[in-house]
Design goal:
Layout (H helix, E strand, L loop, with lengths): L1 H82 L3
């Protein structure tokens, strides 16, 4: 009887060791998951900032192009009025 009880005790200790190992692994996975979530959030934020900068740059380029177009139109108008024969 004592031998059977000792075998059961050994098995219970093995089960407990496996459970502890699984709990440690689970904690490590939780930590890794939290780190990954934070990294993904940072990447999204970084991409959003990048997109905002791109939009701003494009807006400035469009504004500059419009100013250039208007300046060219003004020059064309000045040339037309100065070329008209008197």
């Amino acid at each position: 009887m004592e031998k059977v009880l000792n075998e059961i005790l050994v098995e219970l200790k093995e089960i407990k060791a496996v459970q502890l190992s699984l709990l440690k692994e689970q904690e490590a996975l939780k930590h890794n998951s939290a780190v990954l979530k934070k990294d993904v959030t940072n990447l999204k934020d970084g991409q959003q900032e990048k997109n905002t900068l791109i939009k701003h740059t494009l807006t400035l380029q469009i504004e500059n192009m419009l100013e250039i177009r208007n300046a060219l139109r003004s020059i064309e108008q000045e040339q037309k009025t100065s070329v008209i024969p008197k």
